[in-house]
Structure prediction request, 85 residues.
Amino acid sequence: MNDLVKFLRDRNMADNHAYADVACRFGGDAVLDSHLPMLDMVDMLAADCAAMDPADPRHTGLVYALKVLAQSYDEHPDYRREWRP
Prediction:
């Protein structure tokens, strides 16, 4: 599970850097309708999962949600097929 969390957090960091580059080149208005708030929420879920005790009854649902979110990166070379929900 730690690998999935790390994968998602790494992808979010890369996406955030891409948005920052766009904002730097074209101004802040270029990212007004971006997915930045969603990236922050996914990162918060990943951090919560990393800190959560696997015995917590919410853990299974959170892991499933992260697997669903990770599918958006299924063409990335580091994505693993066993993460499919």
